[in-house]
Description:
mainly beta, 8-stranded antiparallel β-barrel, disordered N terminus
Amino acid sequence: xxxxxxxxxxxxxxxxxxxxxxxxxxxxxxxxxxxxxxxxxxxxxxxxxxxxxxxxxxxxxxxxxxxxxxxxxxxxxxxxxxxxxxxxxxxxxxxxxxxxxxxxxxxxxxxxxxxxxxxxxxxxxxxxxxxxxxxxxxxxxxxxxxxxxxxxxxxxxxxxxxxxxxxxxxxxxxxxxxxxxxxxxxxxxxxxxxxxxxxxxxxxxxxxxxxxxxxxxxxxxxxxxxxxxxxxxxxxxxxxxxxxxxxxxxxxxxxxxxxxxxxxxxxxxxxxxxxxxxxxxxxxxxxxxxxxxxxxxxxxxxxxxxxxxxxxxxxxxxxxxxxxxxxxxxxxxxxxxxxxxxxxxxxxxxxxxxxxxxxxxxxxxxxxxxxxxxxxxxxxxxxxxxxxxxxxxxxxxxxxxxxxxxxxxxxxxxxxxxxxxxxxxxxxxxxxxxxxxxxxxxxxxxxxxxxxxxxxxxxxxxxxxxxxxxxxxxxxxxxxxxxxxxxxxxxxxxxxxxxxxxxxxxxxxxxxxxxxxxxxxxxxxxxxxxxxxxxxxxxxxxxxxxxxxxxxxxxxxxxxxxxxxxxxxxxxxxxxxxxxxxxxxxxxxxxxxxxxxxxxxxxxxxxxxxxxxxxxxxxxxxxx
Length: 624
């Protein structure tokens, strides 16, 4: 095989032709931080570049550029420190009215809301250090950059114009005795030609000096042919010198009898031939520089001989022969019964040089055949509908073409718990056990529902539900081992297809030692926790009433123990009322030691444990 490579980046001489478009403008700053506003400008150029090495060269040429900008002088003329001042003016009337001190005055002029635009053309002669580079085997794309200086020579049509609405203000100032007209507090006299004029529209030619600027450019090169390149990029010119000069239009006057309708004196009295200079009347502007920023496009042509394309012999591509993937027989078996299963098997090779991901489907009757790379480790994710997915690994060998994957099937157990009034019970403790080594715990939610997502197959389970204040209930479940009979989920139901039901206790007994300190009847934090469980049960079963019975051991007088047991029963009742149980549902009675549970009558010697058995509080539950 052979191929041609373009030699798109060489030493030698090039000519360029191009155009530019951007913000080419006169840059200056006015009072109160007002500045000129760039307008759209354009240009064209014919250039010459010589590259004395593969990357570096010099560039020059000749171009013409159009510059365009606007300036707005928004300052009030009264605060303008650069107003026009004409001394030694003459006023007859004030001399006759107020004496010789009022004969001589100064004429002051100022600008307000002045809008002026400038346009002009410049010949441009650049001198730049150039850099270029190209990329890739074909060298068809590259970039260029240039940095240097530029001489900008003003040519035809360097003009300015004042927009209608710009305002000229005029005032007279008398040094003696320091009087400014017009003055609302001053004498009632005529304006003598003073006032404002907003109908002025000046136009004229500007005297512009040569500009010296820093210049830079950056862009891309696209090779079209071995001799022709297309270039496009951005440029920036920064003027270093002040181009401000005089004015070519001496007939542009600020004020005279023709442009001030209030004038009643000859021109000599009010400032005839006061010349306008452009650039916001020149006075607010100290320095003007050229500034340009924009984009450029063009063509670059290689002069002289062009090196012929070089043909490069390409070596034949030697491709690595991939290893053969032999056929493997894949079986998925239940780990308990060793029966085949119908599953989806997602296989990912972690050690193969070539990515090997695939999905196969096993059957409960026939093995599945697939092609795998030998001597590699595979991850397998096995999914059977309804059951949790199972992950395992296997290693392929060259000599053994059968793969067996064993997976355990784990069904779920769920159910609901209600009371005997068919109301769903939350916070019921659920224990699922085989009474040997397998135990799972859960709790019902606010809807009385629970679920254990993964239990073992082939097991006889007891589902035990318990809650304080209720008699516990148990449901038995047989989970088969045969995968053909095994279901993904089982619901805990009794033989009559009902869920688990908890009946409120008929009687509940709590040791007085749990509820009260010795010889005390007030409840501590632990006692309240025990009673809160009974309060919850009563709230869940509003038809149930409770009798709170207090009991003591036989030590001490009968009267003392009777009183203590009543106070303890009342203490429990009062707390239950505070928790929201109405008092008519609670009866409290103290029995002292009249209802002993064992032989420990008065005078009988008993152990502390036997006496403790008699110290208790009993809760008797009945329906209304």
